[in-house]
Amino acid sequence: MIEIARAKRRGLWPGMFILLALVLMSCGALPGGSELEDKTILTDQTVDKSQMLSMINTYRQQNGRPPLRHDPELDSVSQDMARHIAERDSMDTWAHSAFGLSQRLDKAGYANYAGAENLGAGYADLNAAFQGWQGSEGHNKNLLNPYVTRVGIARTNRNTGKWRNFWVMTLSRPNEDGRPTAR
């Protein structure tokens, strides 16, 4: 306290204030000199499967397509992909291709005759994601794919970055549902 009073009398107070501010700012640094920053955290979110199934089957029925069944194995495949794209804050990945989906289904031990996948980013809820897919020619084609019989869905949130919400819907026809017939 005495030193501060002396510094004020000598006109050194502004300098001491700056020095004190610099010392306090250095407390916010990590060992090694790195500044503190937001760490990216990924959180898998629950998706209402009955709502998803109702939405897709109502839509498929309106378009003359047979209903799909929910498949927890496809939820798992979808969740892996949702985390993959959330980690990158991008849907631009080799894994989002016919070959990539085939590899991921094989890796999961999911033998199938047909498969399709819809990705989405930035959608705040399931309704928004579904409407986005309906409004995209390629995604809509997947929603109405006549050869698939099962569906799974997942969502992963990211606390930093551009998109924050990442959605993946995986559609497939497992071997146990039989070979598709020509339509």
UniProtKB/TrEMBL annotation:
Task: Mention any Pfam family matching this sequence.
Answer: CAP
| PROSITE patterns to which the protein is assigned, alphabetical | PROKAR_LIPOPROTEIN (PS51257)
Record-annotated SCP domain positions: 53-169
Q: What Gene3D superfamilies has UniProt attached to this entry? A: CAP (3.40.33.10)
The record, for InterPro entries, names: CAP_dom (IPR014044), CAP_sf (IPR035940)
What name does the UniProt record give this protein? CAP domain-containing protein
